[in-house]
Design a protein that fits this description.
alpha+beta; 60s Ribosomal Protein L30, Chain: A; Phosphoribosyl-aminoimidazole Synthetase, Chain A, domain 2; 6-stranded mixed sheet; 11 helices; 34% helix; binds adenosine-5'-diphosphate; binds magnesium ion
Length: 337
């Protein structure tokens, strides 16, 4: 199977009706986007490299999902509405079963968001998947509705969506660093391999959140980016955050569940604070907006938890339930560390 036949068969969808914003899709030298009036185009790229971002034995359908999900998560963090994406693919060989499953996983997620594959590149080489997404952000009365990292202000609440740490828990279990029951691993593995980009929440937070970022490298590391960009500090309540590890939630008593998993308090906290690969939204909002934040969570059907507060004093402070400082080093994931 040649390059063009491969594209034709697995990535070009003939009868498929193009989204309104896509003036021209796959087939020519460029694709064309026609943004609605008074909108900005939000653009983001993410690359997935075998061995670095996924294990060689990963299910290709899940990989198709994840490759797009991590990109949609960036659009979500900016409050952008996904419209289109490109796919640059290096493949060791044209394995038809792999391609069929990969494209199925990819398009299943793309179609839920009406996000169109409009072009890309295909080449032979070690497996490498690079997606670029394009989303729309409205400009209202000359002001962009985009959510940025730089908007947090002292007194703002700090929130995070969904659950944290389970993707890393699954990764450690798959790598043999941790022994967890098969049923729990199966649930955690979905978080690792098929994360849900929080697009609906990002859209609902336009005009509500003061700053936002998606949690890809671990809560504390990504919060650090917000603090740096916003030039402020934060205080985080670890007794609230620790409850966010879903693996300890299912069986009623979270402490008993942690015991059964043989996770120390410190380890459990470390998964939540520095796990990575969560693809949840971390955001801030003025304390006067608490009801509005809850309404955004409801309309987007996404749970959110208030975990702390922005302060003027730079730095990140962790406190326990009694308000006492928590020690411990929670390094977040850095590819070059
Ligand atoms: P060029 O040689 O001009 O770079 P190609 O021959 O690589 O163009 O690609 C032909 C068409 O197929 C282009 O519209 C390109 O965007 C599209 N395309 C190539 N690879 C992919 C892919 N993996 N997914 C989607 N579209 C692709
Ligand atoms: Mg080419």
């Amino acid at each position: 199977m040649g390059e063009f036949e491969l594209i034709e068969r697995y990535f070009k969808r003939g009868a498929h009706q193009l989204a309104r914003e896509v003036a021209l899709g796959i087939g020519d030298d460029c694709a064309l986007l026609q943004p609605a009036p008074d909108t900005q185009i939000a653009i983001s790229s993410d690359m997935l490299v075998q061995g670095r971002h996924f294990l060689p034995e990963v299910d290709p359908g899940a990989l198709g999902h994840k490759a797009l999900a991590v990109n949609l998560s960036d659009l979500a963090a900016c409050g952008a509405q996904p419209r289109a994406f490109t796919l640059a693919l290096a493949l060791p060989q044209a394995d038809e079963r792999w391609l069929a499953a990969f494209s199925r996983g990819l398009f299943a997620l793309a179609d839920t968001h009406i996000c169109e594959l409009i072009g890309g590149d295909t080449t032979q080489g070690p497996l490498n998947i690079c997606i670029t997404v394009f989303g729309e952000v409205p400009v209202v009365s000359g002001r962009s509705q985009v959510l940025l990292r730089s908007g947090a202000r002292p007194g703002d609440d700090v929130y995070v969506s969904g659950t944290l740490g389970d993707a890393r828990l699954a990764l450690d279990a798959l790598n043999g660093k941790l022994d967890i029951p098969a049923a729990l691993l199966a649930q955690a593995r979905v978080r690792l391999e098929q994360p849900t980009p929080r697009v609906a929440l990002g859209l609902a937070l336009r005009g509500v959140a003061s700053a936002a970022i998606d949690v890809s490298d671990g809560l504390l590391g990504d919060l650090g980016h917000v603090l740096k960009a916003s030039n402020c500090g934060a205080i985080i309540n670890t007794s609230v955050a620790i409850e966010l590890l879903a693996a300890c939630r299912h069986s009623g008593n979270a402490n008993a569940a942690a015991d059964r998993l043989q996770l120390s308090h410190e380890q459990r906290l470390s998964y939540v604070l520095a796990g990575g690969d969560d693809y949840e939204l971390l955001f801030t909002a003025p304390a006067t907006m608490r009801a509005t934040v809850q309404a955004a969570a409801r309309t987007s059907d996404t749970p959110v938890t208030r975990i702390g507060r922005i302060e003027a004093e730079p730095g990140l402070r962790l406190i326990n339930a009694r308000g006492k400082p928590v020690s411990g080093r929670f390094a977040s994931f850095d590819h070059f560390a």
